[in-house]
Amino acid sequence: MTDQAYNFAYLDEQTKRMIRRAILKGLAIPGYQVPFASREMPMPYGWGTGGVQVSAAVLTPDDTFKVIDQGADDTTNAVSIRTFFERTAGVATTTATADASVIQTRHRIPEDQLSEEQILVYQVPIPEPLRFLEPRESETRKMHSLEEYGLMHVKLYEDISCHGHIATSYAYPVRVEGRYVMDPSPIPKFDNPKMADMAAIQLFGAGREQRIYALPPYTKVVSLDFEDHPFEASKADHPCGMCGAEDSYLDELIVDDTGGRMFVCSDTDYCEARQAAGHKGKDAA
Amino acid sequence: MQAEILSGGFADPAIQSAHAFRSVMEAMARPGTIHDIAGATPPAPLSPAAGAVLLTLCDTDTPVYLAGACDCDAVRNWLAFHTGAPFAGPAHCMFAIGTWDALAPLSAYRIGTSEYPDRSATLIVERTDLSASGTLLKGPGIKGRAALSLPEVAAFQANATLFPLGLDFLFTSGDRFAALPRTTEVM
């Protein structure tokens, strides 16, 4: 198999120009979903085709590329996308957050604070925050144009009336610069505060739904809430079993068939770096 | 004449346009910051920066408006050969290129619609000089305040009030450029 048979970063130049123009308009209108002509990629929809196309349009040969899937560098999806760009773009890859210049992510924001030199590319399944409230695209488009977001507040209110608190725990809607309501992709709401005033550029690609949107650095991103039910970034109330971190988002693992469980950092790089630095949790071997 | 038209494009289009786009993206994401951009040697009066931006973003899908002195045979033929972009008037263009005076009036350009604010023109303004001083800027992409030498202030203030509609600007000078999207508040 000759990887050189492909153009740099797989996509042809005209496709990349189209995606690049969409990215620029996305940055100029933060939170607005720019339609783009998504291409067939050599992986199924739902495996990050939107993020891959955005990464392909953004990467240069000088970049160091990192891919995370639910925080992990070593899952199938992350490994195959990383290998894909190693082969088609010849970029260096890493698992260390601090060493990466472009980070493609599925459903997490790294625990380490990102810098101005970094770009975060999100894989987005359903870019329209209003989609499950209003299935018609013609209507949701009108609602965005009229800033008609009452329905979203009704949804959050119904959460409170049913559960006593806002039960939405991921893909928690945000308002960008006081204008567009945006789906932050299915990141846990624990990650929502990290989107605001981030030093890095944040790009969102939805391949099947053919939308690109973006957040420039230092942009105001507010999670929707109510005065008497303020937004709360929640996580499992445990320290990490491996590294003992109390400030990171945790995955719950079932470890035996008698109900035993442990909590570990979802960000594998963060957890490994802490363990290497000598931090130990109660479940560490 | 012929040689001038055929030369001056990207020698290695995939790689050079990738680098050029990263500069354009950084500029658009961080209004007021000045970036270098290289790889194009377009015919006069186009600046190398403007040439590189056009090569990076324009193709047969993007009508281009050449304003004032830019609308000459040399530029038309060069752009047609290297990008294939069709030429259009200000009312139909996606990109416009020229000096600030030649591009006026701004009311001629598309600012998008409330349902599709992205369907708006991007203006590439050729400047003799560009410096990170003068008019103060604030808004998304700017930590605190930034400054940029703008040709005037009122037009950009009026443009920002149209948000989410409006025009986006790139200012080019030699091989340097900066950007001013519609979100930036000009003070």
UniProtKB/TrEMBL annotation, chain A:
Pfam families xrefs: PhnJ (PF06007)
EC identifiers of the protein: 4.7.1.1
One GO biological process term: organic phosphonate catabolic process
Key word Ligase present: no
Catalytic activity: alpha-D-ribose 1-methylphosphonate 5-phosphate + AH2 + S-adenosyl-L-methionine = alpha-D-ribose 1,2-cyclic phosphate 5-phosphate + methane + 5'-deoxyadenosine + L-methionine + A + H(+)
Record's keyword annotation contains Metal-binding: yes
Superkingdom of origin organism: Bacteria
Keywords attached to this entry: 4Fe-4S, Iron, Iron-sulfur, Lyase, Metal-binding, S-adenosyl-L-methionine
InterPro entries: PhnJ (IPR010306)
Any GO molecular function: alpha-D-ribose 1-methylphosphonate 5-phosphate C-P-lyase activity
Function, in words: Catalyzes the breakage of the C-P bond in alpha-D-ribose 1-methylphosphonate 5-phosphate (PRPn) forming alpha-D-ribose.
Family that this chain belongs to: Belongs to the PhnJ family.
Protein name: Alpha-D-ribose 1-methylphosphonate 5-phosphate C-P lyase
Gene behind this protein: phnJ
Automatic annotation (TrEMBL), chain B:
Keyword Ribonucleoprotein: no
Source organism superkingdom: Bacteria
Gene Ontology biological process terms from the UniProt entry: organic phosphonate metabolic process
Gene3D superfamilies in alphabetical order: Bacterial phosphonate metabolism protein PhnH
Enzyme Commission number(s): 2.7.8.37
Signal peptide start and end residues: none
MF GO annotations: alpha-D-ribose 1-methylphosphonate 5-triphosphate synthase activity
InterPro entries according to UniProt: PhnH-like_sp, Phosphonate_metab_PhnH
Record's protein name: Alpha-D-ribose 1-methylphosphonate 5-triphosphate synthase subunit PhnH
Keywords, in A-Z order: Transferase
